[in-house]
Write a structure and sequence with these properties.
Blueprint (H helix, E strand, L loop, with lengths): L12 H10 L8 H14 L3 E5 L2 H11 L7 E5 L4 H8 L4 E5 L21 E7 L8 H11 L2 E5 L7 E2 L2 E2 L6 E5 L12 E5 L5 H8 L5 H5 L19 H11 L2 H18 L1 H5 L12 E2 L5 E4 L3 H13 L15 H6 E3 L6 H5 L2 E4 L7 H14 L3
Parallel strand pairs: 2-3, 2-4, 3-12, 4-5, 5-8
Antiparallel strand pairs: 1-9, 6-7, 6-10, 8-9, 11-13
Length: 376
């Protein structure tokens, strides 16, 4: 069976983890954590990056930094992972789901403004498959209405919108280094601060509500409990694993992009014949080959396709069940306007195997299996 995902492994991870262990500093904010944060700041051209235990943790910190309180409303797409919503539900917010665009599966910027009320405090955008939302339009809406913008860039490290790195355009950006992502530390994430206005506040939330970071910089002679917070620091062992992959960033990125391009070109004839829909990369966007998906005609066709692929020895999978249709989505939120595309498009989508190091033979087997479904 060809796996859908294999966690990235470049080979030097054990060496870096051994070095971390010998440093006798394996808790949070050790040497490798700092190296990873410096790498992200330089690579993504962002003033501050903080490693966290997960992208969920980074989203929770964003909700704190947005000062979300009970009764506030947050606008977000329904087609996303539950962590995007959980972070704001935990602060007492009401979720307002907006419809998505059928081309990118991202929130439809034209459906945001109609969802705004006098209770709206933030817009949370999700860059699906590493492809950017229309950040110019979204930032314009946010600034005109005095709203915060959180970028859930879990899938989007290295992707850009008109030359700007995703996760660095809104007020806060959140990355994921889960084992399914382009770069992994098993479980992990990062919070990006495009401006430094809330740097000390973010550090307090991340350090269990204390000013420990200021203490280590010599700004205070002792650290104390200042506010609420949590333990959002990952182990330095995890950071060492991630840093090994950062040192091979270009190699990993190119390998994934090669697979994405091979799929896209090989499947073009099926799309030209109207049998599938391929991913769309809007003008002005670059993407990071986080995933390659196709869309079938409808849910019935997708169900048959997934069965066929499994029987062919290929593990292809669908993705999110729209949040607004879930028990928690109905409990904590509402859908704004009409669900024109969210459910319909989500029921058509299938993700093909794509990971660092997938073999030429396995890629060819995936492509042959797709063609075989259509009798080609």
């Amino acid at each position: 069976m060809i796996d859908f995902n294999v966690p990235p492994f470049v080979g030097t991870e054990p060496e870096y983890m051994r070095e971390a262990a010998l440093n006798k500093k394996i808790c949070g904010d050790g040497p490798f954590t700092k190296k990873c944060q410096q790498f992200l700041e330089e690579k993504l051209q962002v003033p501050a990056a903080y490693l966290t235990t997960s992208c969920t943790s980074a989203l929770e910190m964003s909700a704190l930094l947005c000062h979300i309180k009970p009764g506030d409303e947050v606008i977000l797409p329904s087609y996303t992972f539950c962590s995007t919503a959980d972070a704001f539900v935990l602060r007492g917010a009401t979720l307002v789901f907006a419809d998505i665009r059928p081309d990118t599966m991202n929130i439809d910027e034209n459906r945001i403004e109609e969802a705004i009320t006098d209770k709206t405090r933030a817009i949370v955008v999700v860059h699906y498959a590493g492809v950017s939302c229309d950040m110019d339009a979204i930032m314009d809406i946010a600034r005109r209405h005095g709203l915060m913008v959180v970028e859930d860039a879990a899938q989007a490290i290295g992707s850009t919108w008109h030359g700007r790195m995703l996760g660095t355009i809104g007020d806060f950006g959140c990355l994921s280094f889960h084992e399914t992502k382009n770069f992994s530390m098993g479980e992990g994430g990062a919070l990006l601060l495009p401006v430094l206005d809330q740097r000390e506040e973010a550090e307090i939330y991340r350090e269990k509500g204390t000013d420990r970071s200021r203490f280590f910089r010599g700004q205070v002679d002792k650290y104390t409990w200042q506010d609420y917070g949590s333990s959002y620091l990952p182990s330095d062992l995890n950071a060492a694993y991630l840093y090994a992959q950062f040192m091979e960033y270009d190699r990993v990125a190119k390998n994934r992009m090669d697979t994405w391009n091979i799929y896209d070109e090989a499947l073009r004839p099926l799309a030209d014949d109207g049998l599938i829909t391929r991913p769309v990369i809007p003008e002005g966007c670059t993407h990071n080959a986080h995933m390659y998906y196709i869309k079938l005609r409808d849910l019935e066709a997708r169900t048959r396709f997934l069965t066929h692929m499994k029987q062919s020895g290929v593990l292809a999978v669908f993705h999110y069940i729209p949040l607004h249709s879930s028990p928690a989505g109905r409990k904590f939120g509402r859908f704004s306007g009409e669900d024109v595309y969210t459910t319909k498009e989500s029921e058509r989508l299938v993700r093909l195997p794509l990971y660092y190091g997938i073999s030429d033979e396995d890629r060819e087997s995936v492509i042959r299996a797709v063609y075989a479904f259509f009798g080609r």
